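Sample intake sheet
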Amino acid sequence: MLSPNGTLIVLGLLVALAIGAVWLSITILLRGKLYHRLKPDARPRRWVLISLLALFLIFLVWFPVWMTWPHALISRFLTLLFGVSFVIVSLTFKWFAPFVDAYFTRKGWPLR
C-alpha cells in the first residue's frame, strides 16, 4: 500500500502526464513548431489524435461520475458511452485505418 503522500505523488505524476499528452496532441494538431520539426513520415495522423483526445474527454467526464455514484443511472449511461466509444476507436485503429485514410484522402483533408 502506498502512503497518502505516495498516492498524491503518483496522482500528481499521472495528472502531469495527462496534461503533457493533451498539450502535445494539441500542439501537433495546430501544426506548431514541433509539428514542423517532425519528419513528414513520423507525423501522426490527425484523425488518430482527434479520436484519442475525444476518448480522453469522455474518460474525464465518466471516471469521476463513476467513482462518486457507481450505481446511478447517469453513471451507467456514461459507462456505456465510454465502452462503446472505446470499442469503436479501438476497432478503427485495428482494422479500419486504411478505410479512414482513404476517406480523408478522397475528401481532400490532410492526413498528417
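Comment: Residues 4-29 form the longest helix (26 residues). The chain has two domains: 1-42, 44-112.
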